[in-house]
Amino acid sequence: MTETPALHPLWPAPLADGAVHATVTVPGSKSVTNRALVLAALAAEPGWVRRPLRSRDSQLMSDALRALGVGIEETVSSSSSAGAGAGGEAWRIIPAALHGPATVDVGNAGTVMRFLPPVATLAAGDIRFDGDPRSYERPLGEVINALRALGARIDDDGRGALPMTVHGGGALEGGTVEIDASNSSQFVSALLLSAPRFNQGVEVRHTGATLPSMPHIRMTVEMLRAAGAQVDTPEAGGEKNVWRVAPSALLGRDMVVEPDLSNAQPFLAAALITGGTVTIPDWPHRTTQPGDELRRIFTEMGGSCELTDAGLVFTGTGAIHGIDVDLGEVGELTPGIAAVAALADSPSTLRGVAHLRLHETDRLAALTKEINELGGDVTETADGLHIRPRKLHGGVFHTYDDHRMATAGAVIGLAVKGVEIENVATTAKTLPDFPKMWTDMLAGAEAGAGA
Ligand SMILES: O=C(O)C1=C[C@@H](OP(=O)(O)O)[C@@H](O)[C@H](O)C1
Ligand SMILES: C=C(OP(=O)(O)O)C(=O)O
């Protein structure tokens, strides 16, 4: 977290004047969209990505793939062979021989900065990677070293971080590699996603003591398998912390992206806090997205929910309970849970998320500082936060270019008068329409993509 004075505009977070009752259509998952784009770009034939997320992170991913030679045509369709309800925006992905020279702007997107260097090793030519100042601080050395061990030529400035240049050789040998992914599951996902195209595939052996965000690794494995790859995992009777991907051609798929369940979080929190009801259409009955855990976590914090034909119907009573929970598998939910916990009737302990210090900002420091500046009582622990609810007051809630800080501030602002969110536009990373969706939700209107 670097100190950010309020240089950006302030957005007065609306106070809820009663129970929220709304249906909120949440746009596509960032994690699914960016994996789908990579896998489609590496496929042996064209494919479709339907209902993709259109946001800064997915735009950075598609711009980068285009710069490497991939065709991405954005169309709007009214129906599809992919199944009921699959109309709307659809991107046609046309794979091509990848080439440089090219420059990839990763912004502050972990998925772009980790998933694309392995893709760049398959391109013929130099691929320069650069991004936002924060991208220079986010860990990448494990991916750089792993790719070098698998045969890649990469020039960085010796820090094992961005900016850097991948000297793509048009192919990568691949093989066995050890990696410490305790700082980010994305290191493992990155190596697995491109591995069907490595000459020998890959065997990734995680050597670190902990491994965060396992659902995101499962998402990688499931999407690889759906694209025709052969993947061995620890879960399927394999060795602990070892994943293998065999070399093979990937299929061009026609797939529909699920709503982003982590981005449903502030809207569910609104129902929980105000004692209202929020319905999220198209909530999947089975998913690898970590946001699905919100059903359990927000129920324990005082709400109740039901998965119906209309989607997930989440109801609050207005009572909010503290929680003691390990969020290691679902780290990206932490800011939103911390916001709710600050309004609860008992203390909370959020554990297992030391790696959040390396996210868009140092989220543990940022949450502590911003909630405390509104009168809260939050302390950082070695791997999380202790949150003792106190009566909060209004003030500026800084966001440090972190979309989830902005939505967390908005959640607090529902219950605390006079909260102003600095740079709410940072939500464009994964949810560009957030301010309108939020005010529509409060007005009881249909909120969401296309609303
Ligand atoms: O693979 C992915 O799509 C993601 C993995 C997780 O990263 P970390 O393992 O670095 O937490 C998650 O927090 C991030 O929002 C998205
Ligand atoms: C950690 C996150 O993003 P990234 O993909 O940039 O790592 C997040 O969205 O919470």
UniProtKB/TrEMBL annotation:
Provide the residue positions that the database annotates as binding 3-phosphoshikimate: 30-31, 35, 184-186, 213, 332, 359
The family database entries (Pfam families) matched by this protein are listed as: EPSP_synthase
Say if the entry is tagged with keyword Cytoplasm.
yes
| Cellular-component GO terms for this entry | cytoplasm
Q: What is its main location?
A: cytoplasm
Q: Which InterPro entries match?
A: Enolpyruvate_Tfrase_dom, Enolpyruvate_Tfrase_sf, EPSP_synthase, EPSP_synthase_CS, RNA3'P_cycl/enolpyr_Trfase_a/b
Protein role: Catalyzes the transfer of the enolpyruvyl moiety of phosphoenolpyruvate (PEP) to the 5-hydroxyl of shikimate-3-phosphate (S3P) to produce enolpyruvyl shikimate-3-phosphate and inorganic phosphate.
Any idea what this protein is called? 3-phosphoshikimate 1-carboxyvinyltransferase
Q: Which organism is it from?
A: Streptomyces katrae
Taxonomy of origin reads: Bacteria, Bacillati, Actinomycetota, Actinomycetes, Kitasatosporales
